[in-house]
Write a structure and sequence with these properties.
single chain, 779 residues, alpha+beta, seven-stranded antiparallel sheet
């Protein structure tokens, strides 16, 4: 490697607002016409409450959500007495009587009730502007850097501008309407709701919406207040009308009676009053400043520049042109990456619910798959970018949900498996259901909780937060491990420990010993034992986990050179299903790496068999797979597939795949996991840190850089071991790297087959000038 490198190890963090000029310029989604459909509207969110902004001229529409508006009410899902049928189900599977096992399980082993509840829309805010039907110079945009949506246009020589944002610090959605001439702002504000049982009333400057989803369940209230500068505000029926103002601000708050998964005793009215009252004394400028500062504290940590973008073109046009002219707009990939980070900030903040299947945004009473938390990949994929793209705080709602599910999952473990610890199957909802749902041929999958525990462990690996490990992560990981200590049984054919009954997600059929289960359980046992040793506790339990882990059925290579999906060598090389369950150990796991060349090659063969097709989230997962296979060009090809405009014309139309005009991921229909998965995949192209150990972290620089990005830079990605990393490259080769050690640990940095060992003590700044070869004496 001929180029000189500058490697800097610092124990200080550089200012967050260090965006490159190119990256700063291309952080806006913009359009030259209003949204005609929900999948064209632009999302805003404060982690708890969100809205889709349509940007109409004669009528603005904000469809809004609050993350605890769900069907149902507190109840338990476990099927008491199910455990007595477990031995028979296992016996039937061991004999090969799959259908009989599924029938018995369907009758005696499933959740009560057999289906979980659904996430719901809250309401709609409308602003009607008389005389604005014909306008010129229209533009609507979403600025990712400020998290502000803006609509502007001209009517009769007057320029109107509307801004909208969802404030986390002030717990409200804020809409501002201004004109460039005094006395020109006027509108009628109304609220509506898709739920049958609701009422709307107006008094003074405020419209109030009240209702419930179903009797005995979630009750809700929203209030929209108009604060005008000049003009006249008055209630008219169930609306508020404003005339002749210079400008106006609409403050929208909303709440429910939800306290936690077993308590819905809160008063929505009191909550709305508590949120709305403090805003009366705050100027719009102060609300905006607090919101932007809060958002940028997270968002501006990371910048990415992979080349110039076509920022002068509407975003939907950029998507269409990308299919044939990707080389002309590399900046669109960076915009999509930052949009994923924006969505995570907007849909997952401390104190709220985790990002669900649609993040925070939903306009349907019957959303696809109930917009629940599907934990056989989708929920986990939502959080893949959290640690590596420097949004660690956004994991807080996920960890709270895991704690809740450990409580309900302990009841499920006892009722269904007569086991200690806790278990979560492939879905959960607001009421924290953990029992197997829907149908036995896919609902009985025991590894959801174990997979979620991976995120607890990863949080520790990235942050080094030992208090979090001791108080939150380890107790949950230990409980999940205890379940599998009791659950695993010996396969009568091989003598190996196996997971049964279970299934390989989305392949269908109740089976014994799916590969994915074993990979996840091995990873859980490994991390739990490591955590116990770090904390100096439970030595005997850690040793037991080590022993059991070695007895679990291993990864196997089949007759086609593929990684087997099941105990038996029965993979179909023509199976191109979207779900690549058995490749979990490649990503997000770390069991299969280039350090195991035979398994590495087998995983690659399996991925080749699956093909490049699939739904939006599947393509995102394949981006991550190909980065771990160190094939940046193939990963980039998958990214282009992800960015291909979907052929669907509505959110529920099951045609095409890829991306909607507003950059939402298209399963189709809309699923937000593809956005998050692709964001994580882009980060993995540039930085990987999974191949080291706790005591000897390894940072791989540009491990899967595609040829399509010959020049670029990224700032402040995070690596396991507690590092922030800045990378710059030119002509497809590394030119500079800055590494900040936040924990003062040594690490190994690798690039293009060469490595350097670096040490950083707390408070020490070390500068290594020159190439990696010189820094290491030519290693």
């Amino acid at each position: 490697m001929a180029r000189r490198l500058t490697l800097i190890v610092l124990t200080i963090v550089l200012p967050a607002a260090c965006l490159s000029a190119q990256a700063q310029a291309d952080l806006k989604l913009w359009y030259d016409k209003p949204a005609g459909k929900w999948i064209e509207a632009l999302p805003i969110g404060n982690g708890r409450m969100g809205a889709m902004v349509f940007g109409g001229m004669a009528e603005e529409h904000l469809q809004f959500n609050e993350d605890t508006v769900w069907t149902g009410s507190p109840h338990e899902y476990q099927h008491d007495g199910a455990a007595k049928y477990l031995p028979k189900i296992r016996e039937l599977l061991a004999k090969g009587d799959q259908k009989e096992a599924e029938g018995l399980a369907m009758e005696q082993f499933m959740s009560v009730p057999v289906r979980q509840e659904a996430y719901q829309p809250f309401g709609d805010l409308y602003l009607k502007f008389d005389g604005h039907d014909q306008a010129a110079g229209y533009r609507r945009e979403l600025d990712l850097d400020s998290a502000v949506s803006t609509v502007s246009y001209t009517v009769n020589g007057v320029r109107f501008t509307r801004t909208a944002f969802a404030s986390h610090p002030d717990n409200a959605i804020v809409v501002r309407v201004v004109a460039d001439r005094p006395g020109q702002v006027g509108f009628a504000l109304r609220l509506d709701c898709p739920h049958k049982e609701h009422q709307v009333r107006a008094a003074g400057d405020t419209v109030t919406l009240m209702g419930h989803v179903e009797p005995g369940g979630i009750r809700f209230e929203a209030r929209a207040r108009v604060v005008a500068q000049g003009g006249k505000v008055e209630a008219a029926g169930d609306q508020v009308r404003l005339q002749g103002a210079d400008s106006a601000t609409v403050l929208l708050v909303g709440a429910t009676n939800f306290v936690n998964y077993h308590d819905i005793s809160a008063d929505p009215s009191q909550r709305c009053e508590a949120m709305l009252s403090p805003l009366a004394s705050k100027a719009y400028e102060d609300l905006l400043a607090a919101h932007v500062a809060d958002h940028r504290k997270l968002f501006r940590r990371v910048s990415l520049d992979v080349g110039p973008g076509q920022a002068d073109k509407p975003t939907d046009q950029r998507l269409k042109e990308l299919v044939d002219h990707a080389e002309a707009d590399p900046g669109l990939a960076a915009l999509y990456f930052q949009f994923g980070r924006y969505l995570l900030i907007a849909s997952s903040r401390a104190g709220g619910q985790p990002a669900n299947l649609q993040g925070l945004w939903n306009d349907s009473l019957t959303p696809p798959w109930d917009s629940k938390w599907t934990v056989n990949i989708n929920t986990e994929m939502n959080y893949w970018p959290a640690e590596v793209t420097n949004l660690s705080e956004c994991t807080a709602p996920l960890f709270q949900m895991i704690e809740d599910c450990a409580q309900t999952g302990a009841k499920t473990a006892r009722a269904h498996y007569d086991a200690r610890g806790w278990v979560l199957h492939h879905n959960t909802d607001l009421w924290r259901g953990t029992a197997p749902i829907n149908k036995s041929n896919h609902g009985i999958w025991v590894s959801g909780g174990a997979w979620l525990c991976r995120h607890l462990w990863e949080h520790y690996l990235f942050t080094g937060d030992k208090q979090f490990l001791a108080e939150t992560a380890y107790p949950l990981m230990k409980g999940a491990s205890q379940f599998f200590v009791d659950f695993l049984v010996k396969d009568p054919k091989t003598g190996r420990l196996i997971s049964t009954p279970s299934n390989s997600p989305e392949q269908g059929g109740l089976v014994a010993g799916p590969t994915m289960d074993h990979q996840i359980i091995r990873a859980l046992f490994t991390s739990t034992a490591a955590a116990a040793r770090i904390l100096g506790v439970d030595a005997d339990f850690a040793a037991k986990l080590d022993d059991l882990r070695r007895q679990i059925a291993p990864n196997q290579i089949g007759k086609y050179g593929q990684l087997q999906e099941w105990l038996e060598d029965k993979d179909d090389p023509k199976n191109d299903h979207r779900h690549c369950s058995h490749l979990w150990a490649l990503f997000p796991g770390d069991e299969i790496t280039p350090d195991q060349p035979r398994l590495f090659a087998a995983a690659r063969q399996s991925l080749i068999f699956r093909g490049d097709g699939g739904t939006g989230w599947s393509k995102a997962w394949k981006i991550c797979f190909w980065t771990r296979l160190l094939d940046g060009d193939h990963a980039y090809r998958m990214l282009l597939g992800q960015l291909t405009p979907t052929g669907a014309t509505a959110v529920s139309t099951k045609k095409g795949g890829g991306t909607y005009p507003n950059l939402f991921d298209a399963h189709p229909p809309f699923q937000i996991d593809g956005n998050f998965g692709a964001t994580a995949g882009i980060a993995e192209m540039l930085l990987q840190s999974h191949r080291g150990t706790i005591d000897a972290p390894i940072i791989d620089l540009l491990p899967a850089l595609p040829k399509a990005w010959p020049v670029g830079q990224v700032k402040s990605l995070r690596a396991r071991g507690g590092y922030e990393v800045d990378i710059a490259w030119g002509d497809g080769r590394l030119t500079a790297v800055t590494i900040r050690s936040l924990l003062g640990r040594p690490c190994t940095v690798r690039y293009a087959g060469r490595s350097v060992q670096l040490e950083a003590k707390s408070g020490e700044v070390v500068n290594l000038n020159g190439s990696i070869e010189r820094a290491t004496g030519g290693k």
